[in-house]
Amino acid sequence: MAAEAAPPLFTEAIIFLAATVVAVPLAKRLGLGSVVGYLAAGVTVGPFGLGVFGSAEHILAVAELGVVLLLFVIGLELDAKRLWSMRRDIFGLGTSQVVLTGAALFTALRLAGLPFEAALIAGFGLALSSTAFALQILQERGQLSSPYGQRAFGILLLQDIAIVPLLALVSILAPGETAGGATEVAVEIGLTVGAVLAVVLTGRYLVSPLFLFLAGSRAREVMLTAALLVALGSAGIMHAVGLSMALGAFLAGVLLAESSFRHTLEADIEPFRSLLMGLFFVAVGMSLDLSIVLSSWTTVLVGVALVMLFKGTALWALARLFGSPNADALRIAVTLPQGGEFAFVLFTAAVGQKILAPELSNLLTAIVILTMLLTPLAGIGLDRVAARLKARGVENPAVESFGEAMPTVLVIGFGRFGMMVAQFLTSEGLPITAIDNRPDRIAYARKLGYKVYYGDATRADVLAAAGGGKAALIALCVENDKVMERAIAIIRDGFPQAKLFCRATDRAHALALTRQGVDFQIRETFESSIAFGRAALSALGTPSDRIAQIEEDVRRRDQERLDLQMKEGMFAGADKLHGVTPRDSSDTGNG
């Protein structure tokens, strides 16, 4: 009997996974970063390497969803107020970079003999950087939230917006275009505004109530499905009117940044984002036509050098002009000098409108891919220069590292106990992030002015999304002992830098927490009982100094009993519960 045929793409999937498993760890071991590893894997298995895949186009179409999910996750980390505070970087610095770099590259291409229309589209297409590559590099380095990372992100966001007028420019410059083109542009603008309003209204008024309803079902897979639906649905609305899908997903993420479900959404989508982003980089590597590189290698090398030099110089100069220190300006320059994925879209549209010849488009695509491949190397070069200067004792502010962020606290469980803990911490001005898995508690806390997010204490990915990796202290205030036990193991394994403070439900739980080695534990009723006893003694006429003496003695005997129980079991030290607190010698004559 003949063997049953393998499912479609089964063999290709095995080869793709094997290539990445080999190439990515090797690239990271060499200090090149995962992006270079994915690109190398793509070149190897692509149509111009081993030829396992005939074309990268069908893979790239699916893999672009990774960029969509990446922008959605980035949007979740930026609420509307923070985005508004970045407006100068987005519209000022970002617009200046696109205009200045595009004009410089347009001039160079005109001098090289390209027609006006072709030079204009090619120059401004090459001025766009890769959102996927730059953000992946920033996330790997943990510098997306740094001052230069936020400024770089503002530039990338403007570039994503700039693809819209550039695509309109292709239509306007197309041979034989008539005045009717202006009407079409006006219609496109109207559709764009309508799509943006649709995403905004849906995100603000429908999505949060939907997630609140789904959270009550406690079905994680339904929450995951809804998260993907929101991200991809917003992208689809934008794509339908010709806008960037990634921009639509980003806008949806921003609208959900204030939602209670922000961290859970981020944790649910992260595995899909990571896998699809890897597939995207592999598909880009597969698109590199080695025959073009070899046949026109001098032109390609000159093009790569000009793009990275012009763009890097413009980025450094403009960042300095907009107030960045030299260190930040240099890091922006080595993070964004590459061409971007939107250049592929622009060049394809220009070929369809007969503005660019197919041969020229292929040459420009090869230049873009090689600039992507070389970008991580530029960052590594800057780091090595910084390390050598530091080893020689040279103070060089141009490559100095960035300051540490203010320590934060993660509060897990936001009932009455957790709320009081949060009040103490915020009274000192300390930033806190609070999570709970009960929608009713979250809604109540938000009415009181607290930002509490939906999340499961036993999920490492949720705790990481909520900032567990950056927290100086994690306060476990949940009521369920079993949940706390699992959470402690996860926190100790995943976030060892954080001090771990726990709420104990009773004496047995306090002993268990002590055995687990938490940094601090307290029984939820102990301190309130002490306060109750102090008030009772005061009402019975006991002097305040005697009350303080009794409290000190009770606390001492309780600790001695705990020590005995740790060694001998729960019933050890029972005698410590009884006895009268001795009086000071000064109290002898007070009868």
Automatic annotation (TrEMBL):
Family affiliation: Belongs to the monovalent cation:proton antiporter 2 (CPA2) transporter (TC 2.A.37) family.
Keyword set, alphabetical order: Antiport, Ion transport, Membrane, Potassium, Potassium transport, Transmembrane, Transmembrane helix, Transport
Pfam families to which the protein is assigned, alphabetical: Na_H_Exchanger, TrkA_N
Gene3D superfamilies: 1.20.1530.20, NAD(P)-binding Rossmann-like Domain
Subcellular location per the Swiss-Prot or TrEMBL entry: Endomembrane system
Residue stretches in coiled coil: none
One CC-aspect GO term: endomembrane system
A single GO molecular function term of this UniProt record: antiporter activity
Protein name according to UniProt: Probable glutathione-regulated potassium-efflux system transmembrane protein
Topology of the protein relative to the lipid bilayer: Multi-pass membrane protein
TM region(s), chain numbering: 6-27, 34-53, 59-78, 90-112, 118-138, 150-173, 185-207, 243-261, 273-294, 300-318, 330-351, 363-382
